[in-house]
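Reopening this ticket.

The earlier resolution said the output was attached, but the attachment link was broken on my side. Pasting everything inline this time so it's all in one place.
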Amino acid sequence: MQNEFDTKQSRIQDFLNNYKLDALLLQSSGNFAWATCGSASFIDRATTMGIATLVITKTDRFVITNNIEKLRLAQEEKLASQSWNFQVAPWYEQNDLLAKLTAGLRVGTDGSLPDTVNMSDEIARLRSQLTTEEGERYKTLGALCAEAMQQTMDAVRPGMTEYEIAGLLSQAAESRGVQTTVNLIATDERIFSYRHPLPTSKKLQKYAMVILCGRMGGLICSTTRLVYFGTLPDELRRKGQAVAQIDAEMIAATRAGSTFGDVFHKAQEVYASTGFADEWQLHHQGGSAGYAPREFTANPASTELIHRGQAFAWNPSITGVKSEDTILVGETSNEVITEMAGWPTIDIQVGDQVIKRPAILER
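Inline output:
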């Protein structure tokens, strides 16, 4: 039985043959993590590109880097044990190692480079087909993100600034080995104004929304929670019930063999039936997850097929509320991997199953 690394190398060889390529060039930190089963090539989190490049041909696999990074990549990131062929240049010199390795080859890459074929979408589609080992790592990550969110929400209090809440979330995640790639905070009226609220100095009065995308081993989980201090207004309660219904229906519709578009159309139906027909137009509804918060974002025309073992993060929203967790598509049902024990939930009946979605926490 093949292990994860061998499975991926086999898939890459099939990829090369299917697209008539001689080599695959991977530069992004997400693709680096995918091809190496979780190794980190990033130093600066503000860029998607790492400090090492992978080149995989039909006969060899190379890692191109500089002398600063080689030892860490070989030892701590365990590339030596995977038998990568290191091509190393001094940090202070221009080098043409990539040009030498790919001279005369038809090269597919995960970006735009001269004399190569941009295969970004095709690579994302390949890496979104998670292995069993990736699924298990994803479950671990989901549990850690849930713990970090719970710790944060337990500590949030009126009077805190959004910056302070963001700091709580970052500390809770990072202390568990999870990098916060997205840390969005909104309080009170800002929740109604912005779908992507970067934290500010505004102080919380009654209502807070906390959004986390957490990364570990390259994989990324997404989750959102809301808390209200005081008696929840009836209109917010109605919206919370509606967005939970939409989210549950989307989760139930996320089955192998269906398309992203099928799930999107189901969402549109439920938006309409709950009285919020046009709200889907104000923000994307999510899609498949993996080595990016969304590998592919669903839209009405999406024909991408859903596969067993894939991860999804749907995020329906109605002005003032949102529902978001990360799921894995199982053989007979789906598993919410960012579920938070003890968090209040809304039970949604969908067919013969009950799907629990997070309610707005009232304090």
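Reporter confirms the inline version is readable. The chain is about 35% helix and 25% strand. The mean pLDDT is 96.
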